Amino acid sequence: MATTTRTAAVPPTAVPAAAVPAAAVNKPKRRWGATAFGVAVLAVMLFPLYWMVNTALQPEAGLLEVDPFPSSLDLSGFSSAVTEQGTNLLTSLAVALGAVAICLAISAPAAYGLAQFRLPGTKAIVFGTLITQMVPGIVIANALYSAYVDLGLVNSYFGLMLADASLGIPFAIVLMRSFMVAIPREVIEAAQVDGSGRVRTFVQVVLPMSRNSLITAGLFSFLYAWSDFMFALTLNTTDDVKPITLGIYQYIGAHVGDWGSVMAASVLSAVPAAILLVLAQKYIAAGITGGSVK
Fold first, then answer.
1. 149-184 confidence digits (pLDDT tens)
2. Are 96 and 225 in contact (CB under 8 A)?
3. To which H or E segment does residue 158 belong?
4. Domain covering 76-292, topology
5. Mean predicted lDDT score pLDDT of the chain
6. Residue ranges of the ABC transmembrane type-1 domain (predicted)?
7. What distance in Å separates the CA atoms of residue 288 and residue 237, rounded to the nearest whole number?
8. Separation in Å, CA 114 to CA 70, 124, 205
């Protein structure tokens, strides 16, 4: 007679506390510690911005009489800043956008040539481009002033656009070249086999694949032009072309007792750059090959 053997189900035993790795226990604590440290660093970095906004909302208070927290919102400082600095904000916006267009129009073809064409002395050219970033701005401004006087570009929008574009062109060339080097040559050769010339291949194939680098280079070029003060002060002798940086500089001297309006003008000058950074941040770290995948 056959006998059947039944095995009793063994209940799962709890893992002893000593068997749990110590790193797993301390991991949440480390995360909280890193988060707290990050929040503290962020608070320190954003405190000047908060104090600028806080002072702008208390236009009647002196610089040493500003409350840490405004009891009421007074927007008279902003209305005064818009009235007196609104034209300068529009001037800065026009000059910065023009500088971005000039920068990308020059740096994109240059980066493509250095990346895809086997040109002699490519490394020396790239190294020289990096060296130009080390030249002090005052040296370039003084040299440009003499040339601008001869060319009639002093006190002109186009002249200031060209000068501000020169700030971003070296960085844009180096940045976009590093992106375009990674473009597979098979993609370019396939476009040429289909009948596309070099210009058409560059416009319809290379530029879409380099969209993220174009946006990044354009963003930094905009920030360079938007925050420029040296060229604005050196290449303009009248108030015909006065960016917001030069306007705030002169505004402080005329309204040294009205720090609320001065801070309000500073807040307004920071808004366009902040909006642009928020809108373009997702493109900065994106991969280059995303534009070629369908």
1. 999 999 999 999 999 999 899 989 988 988 888 888
2. yes
3. helix 157-180
4. MetI-like fold (1.10.3720)
5. 81
6. 89-280
7. 44
8. 55, 11, 17
d(CA 246, CA 8): 86
Closest CA to 114 of 130, 134, 98: 130
Q: How many CB atoms lie within 10 A of CB 92?
A: 27
CA distance 273 to 268: 10
Non-local (6+) Cβ contacts of 29 within 8 A are: none
Q: Could you tell me the pTM of the whole model?
A: 0.80
Six-digit token pair at 18?
């000593």
Tokens of 282: 């997702």
Q: How far apart are CA 136 and CA 165, in angstroms?
A: 15
Residue 203 DSSP one-character state: I
Q: Which of 194, 177, 25, 172 is nearest to 112 (CA)?
A: 177
- The domain locations on the chain are 22-56, 76-292
**Tokens (6 digits) for 181:** 């080097």
Single-letter code of the amino acid located at 38: G
pLDDT for the residue numbered 94: 95
Q: Which residue from 278, 275, 162 is spatially nearest to 225, judged by alpha carbons? A: 162
| Burial track 33-59 (b if 16+ CB lie within 10 A, e otherwise) | eeeeeeeeeeeeeeeeeeebebbbbbb
Q: Quick one: tokens of 107?
A: 């740096």
C-beta of residue 219 within 8 angstroms of C-beta of residue 172: no
Which comes out higher in pLDDT, residue 26 or 140?
A: 140
Q: Which amino acid is at 34?
A: A
Q: Tokens 């960085």 — which residue?
A: 171
- Give the Cα separation of 103 and 71 in Å (integer): 46
Specify whether the CB–CB gap between 197 and 83 falls below 8 A: no
